[in-house]
Amino acid sequence: MARRRQIYEGKAKVLFEGPEPGTLVQYFKDDATAFNNKKKGTITGKGVINNRISEYLMNRLGDIGIPTHFIRRLNMREQLIRQVEIIPLEVIVRNVVAGSLAKRFDMEEGTALPRSIIEFCYKSDELNDPLITEEHITAFGWATSQDLDEIMAMSLRINDFLGGLFYGIGLRLIDFKLEFGRVWDDDQMRILLADEISPDSCRLWDVKTNEKMDKDRFRRDLGGVEEAYQEVARRLGIMPESGPRDMPGPDTIQ
User: pTM of this prediction?
Assistant: First the structure.
């Protein structure tokens, strides 16, 4: 495997210098974290499955006109992406009460929200990704009001599309996290969907049983984590024929 310079390593992915200017190689790890890195573990084959799921969903979103950083999948664990300037926000779209929202307002998990809610967190592990308002975002220069209008409109469109797609395979999209980045094309700034969309970043419950099919199985020690990820991929029709298998990461140069 070609030696590549490592650009960044996060909790679930590693970014390497891409083969062409303006590109990166995104490598999906099996590492799992929860509660802002306080709980750590490994979900065998997760990187392979998330790579396939994210590829599929990014392509489907691209088909409906959502601009994304995804270019193509390279192999079982890697994909080629556009290099973007990440906007330091986590955009959380909620359809059903779950997780921190349930704790914050002492509400019962599973309660349908009257409408979808968008929340913003500042991307900072050191600060535990604090909730922020639009006023914080614009005052601190993380994004403009126009950027936020575009991000919110795109997030709601993504929610509508993915909600229907997942419901069609027997899954409820409870909530999910998105990240966005900026690119410049001929001096024109564009906002692209970045990061990944997978059971790591989405809460997915079985429509009939409410069984959790996402990283909450790891967070809450429910067991069957690998099987849940595989089942999501199977329902989407993209489970690798050989099943998830291990594949070493690329050699790197610092």
Answer: 0.91
